[in-house]
Write a structure and sequence with these properties.
12 helices
């Protein structure tokens, strides 16, 4: 059994195996895109469905091989969150595409495309960085919410009578400010406000500077910082474990250094 596990582990760790799975995921994504064309479904519906079934079968074989590689400790397979995700994609894909599970089965097919993230290590690294960023990003979002709330109240007080389309109540004012953050057509809102208050540009420019440039750059800085930490952690994981021979060599070096130091102490005495 151990021999089989070792051979299977070499197989699933081989670059060729990884590239094959990536190619199948990309091919499955193309098949799903083709399935949105009624003309193609009418003409090639059987082959599209067969292709999806073949890809699903390969995913099942892949999961079995990965479990075999860690046998008899199959629980090691499920300790990896990406393996759990891949396994759930397979489970949902096996649901019947008819009846009450039809919509779930269709959505499960789309999840297969997301498997591209679990198959490519660089994408997994980016997702790990995004997950790490969630707590810090939450604080930035709280800060942004406070800023938007204050500016929304000010905007309502200043412009709701002159421009009710964008400022008639607090909720609409918040939506207008979110639209301004995207920098999409915000100058039109500003020029309308300047018809009433010529100095209204101060309000809009200050909000764009604070809300768009400062806060969004904070988001970027947090994500980049966590990406660097995720890369460092990944490099530590890839470092080979210290062998017994290396430990013995370092121990002998330390012993030799201690002998030399002891000899020098004796000579000084």
């Amino acid at each position: 059994m151990k021999r089989v596990s070792q051979l299977t582990e070499r197989l699933v760790s081989a670059p060729g195996f990884e590239y094959t799975i990536i190619a199948l995921i990309v091919g499955n994504g193309i098949l799903l895109g083709m399935g949105t064309s009624p003309a193609l479904v009418l003409k090639y519906g059987y082959w599209l469905n067969l292709g999806n079934q073949v890809v699903l079968g390969v995913f099942i074989v892949e999961a079995i091989l990965k479990m075999t590689a860690v046998a008899p400790r199959v629980d090691k397979y499920f300790r990896d969150g990406w393996n759990v995700f891949d396994f759930l994609v397979i489970v949902f894909s096996l649901l019947p595409a008819t009846g009450q599970f039809a919509m779930v089965a269709r959505l499960a097919r789309l999840l297969r495309v997301l498997r591209l993230i679990s198959a490519i290590k660089e994408l997994r690294l980016i997702v790990a960085a995004l997950v790490r960023s969630i707590p810090s990003v939450g604080h930035v979002m709280l800060l942004m919410s406070v800023i938007v709330y204050i500016y929304a109240i000010i905007g309502y007080q200043l412009f709701h009578e002159h421009d009710p389309e964008n400022w008639r109540n607090l909720g609409i004012a918040v939506l207008s400010l979110f639209n301004i953050i995207t920098l999409e057509g915000w100058t039109n809102v500003m020029y309308t406000a300047m018809e009433l208050h010529p100095l209204a540009w101060i309000y809009f420019v200050s909000f764009v500077v604070v809300g768009t440039f400062v806060v969004i750059n904070m988001f970027i800085a947090i994500i980049i910082n966590n990406l660097d930490e995720a890369k460092a952690e990944r490099l530590r994981e890839l470092e080979p474990p210290v062998s017994r021979e290396e430990l013995l060599r370092e121990l002998r070096t330390t012993q030799d250094a201690l002998r030399r130091l002891e000899k020098r102490l004796d000579d000084n005495e």
